[in-house]
Amino acid sequence: MSSESVNILAVPFPAQGHLNPMVQFCTHLATKGGVKITLVLTESASKSLQIPTGTASLIEVELIPDVIPEGGGGGDTPQNTETYIALLRATFSQGIPQVIEKRKASGGITPKVVLYDSILPWILGLAKGFGLQGAALFTQPCCVCAVYYHIFHGDVEIPSENSPNAAVLSFPAMPLMGTNDLPYFCYFKDDSQQVQSLLTNQFLNIDQVDWIFFNTFDKLEEKILKWMRSKWSVKTIGPLIPSMYLKDSKEEDHRISFFKPHSQACMDWLSMRQSNSVVYVSFGSIACLTEQQMAEIATALAESNHYFLWVVRESEENKLPKDFKSETSEKGLIVKWCPQLQVLSHGTIACFMTHCGWNSALEALTLGVPMIAVPQWADQQMNAKYVVDVWETGVRPKANQKGIVTKEEIKACIHEVMEEEKGKRLKRNAVKWKGLAEEALLEGGSSHSTTEHFISHLSSI
Known about the structure:
The protein is α/β, with parallel strands linked by helices and 461 residues long. The protein contains 17 helices and 15 strands.
């Protein structure tokens, strides 16, 4: 393959949980000979991004100005999901053609494919308009997306706040689901319908997409993959995390972030703890817990017999109980953000209390860490269902009638995972999935082979 014979234009959805899978896939591609990646970001998104030097040297970042759509009003922050997506669509619809034309005018190689986040399906039309192939990256698991597909086609109604908890639904190639296992959008209140449409519309034009990639691996979702592959040519490329965390590799961590991690403080603190002695707690980059829920978690951690590392974003700190930090300083560390992969791969971490966003759940699975699943919205309920009942690497405390997971439930789960025989079984299962994840990324593995085939095909057209 000749130098820079394959040029790929990558368009991520500018949110933390969507950016990193895209950047990691681009990193895998860019480290192959003859592949050049251009990552398209909006100027507004780039302002708060922490982009490592290594990433900037490996992947070219092209910034495009934000465009206010006609009738869209002004202001720095869109009022809801609908106006935000309209702004994003106007911005990319104007910016992507300009980037492509810029490449042509400068004598550079025109991209052969536009790799885009699947929740931006209209990007495919832009790619086809320039005669380019379109590759959709699904950043949520196959099981969740399969349910989105059924919702999109009207085969199932999503649960509302008034749905009976006893309802049981059956889907092809999936375990029976209760209403609290299905995607949940009521969390977004008045925005729920827009968020639902954003996620289910991933299937608007899937039959016209040239490449369909999922951040998962074959052996993790064998049954649902078989069903999906009977409809589309689905390819797995996960887990999309730097191989340095899975095997002996010199590949650097090129992940980017909207938050600055307290890396040194976390690593120094963990280095003073015993093996398998720490509960790691994080609810991701978006979830906002109620003050009551924060208090229940805080009390459970304070009363448990274990150390804890808790990520509490700056916007959430005011919800912590008064004096909690000072009163628990000897057994716990609270940080605004942390290098999650480094933390999860640290030998002192015994379990991960998580919202079960797909990145977090997949990272825990592939690093061999049992989970305490406390899902909040959208895909997280289903991810938790699979973590507990299918992959058997976690437990899920029950929420009360007000939707609050009490301190008693949390303490019982911590005890179960860290002190009981079941915890040992969960750990063995987690280690099993870690081995299978490594296998998928090694030469000859399902995800490794997909990446190689993608590049080989593009270099031949």
